Amino acid sequence: MAGRISPSNGAATRRTVVAGAAAALAAALTGCESASPAGAGGSSDDAKAPVVSGHKPRGKDVIDVVADCGAKGDGRTDDSRAFARAYARAAGRVWDHVGRTVIDIPAGTYLIKQPHALLDAPGGKLKANGLRFRGAGKRMTQLIFAPSHAEDAYLCRNEDSWANVMFEQMAFAAGTPGASFFYSYSTGQAQDYRFTACEWTGEWTYGLALDGSNTNSEMRWDACRVGGAYRKAFLYSGLSEKSADRPQQDQFLNYWFNDMKVEYAWGNFLEFPYGGSITCRGGSYIVTGRRPEDTDDYGRTSTFFRFPRGPHHDSVQRFHAEDIRFEVRDPDTVVIDCAWDSGTVHFNDCDDTAHAFKSFAADTSPHRYRIGARGPLVRYDSCQLSGRHHYERDGEDTGPRARYDMCLLRNHAPQDFIDGAGDRVKFVDCLGS
Fold first, then answer.
1. What does the alpha-carbon distance between residue 101 and residue 58 come to, in Å, rounded to a whole number?
2. Domain-by-domain residue ranges, the chain?
3. Inter-residue contact 340 to 375 (CB < 8 Å)
4. Tens digits of residue pLDDT in 305-318
């Protein structure tokens, strides 16, 4: 987990302005020098808050990119300068490391050609907590990112600068195929991102690309739609471009996806080669097409959850999927491909049988694992499953590493359901065809 953000004067921790003021008031009213009895722990760091220094910044607390910064929102005019101006105002109003500005983006279609125009925080020069972008609605506020060159072009970048970043009620479209949405580098500062009722369309290389040697963590998506297509992945952890210590690039913790509509044409949804703690609950997950050509990394497959094995320390490796309906529309759609060397994978009350009646379904392997002596441990509870599941043995260790409880196998009986290392799997009260 990331460390705390230090107050500007380093005098105290984050909680005691209110507590200290209350204690001073109590002392003034009662004539006592201290409101805390001796030995009561009143001087504990956890009971203190930062002393607020400086002055509240001037200007409005809510900035409108149209009214205040000159954006047109007509879909034709380049609004890059207006968005850069809005972000500069928000960054300039940080006070005691806390953001004090909401950026409002009214209904409209905004063309942005300049990389980093929406959020531009390079090099960790700014240590701030709290940045909020607020749209009018998922289809009402749309930002089209159309840089002149797609390679390494990101609409947002946050390099060890901002924590607690929120995007609400807006849509992002890649106007230049292969552009990327968000680059986040962290050695402990970049964390706590939240996306609510947002949408992505168009062809991207990355949605969010996470990098660094410590925490990119506590990120949450609620009621969002992931559309478009992804040359790499919508959320990719561990680019290793600038990691201070690559073997330790494994602090990718706590990602929540709730009530999602994951309906994209091709590519990967989540790719986590350095482990992570990931929870997906509710919604529909559908790959609607196929990759336009073979690639060295992925061939023609599109995978919702791709967890290859990368070099790292013994970091957290935990994945949980619950109450999700998957569609496996063709043999190149993969639900999960996991080669983690330990940890747990758990599917609960999930269903991927929407196309189990089709002729290709029985021969597909939409769930694929490489399992060694330390796992990962794999469990399916009350799931409805199509095709076969593939298990590759990593090492000579034997014994069950995967368990299926109360599952319905649509295309095969349990004894035929496993492709590969069947000795790694145990079935309990399952039904098969």
1. 11
2. 1-53, 130-432
3. yes
4. 999 987 766 678 99
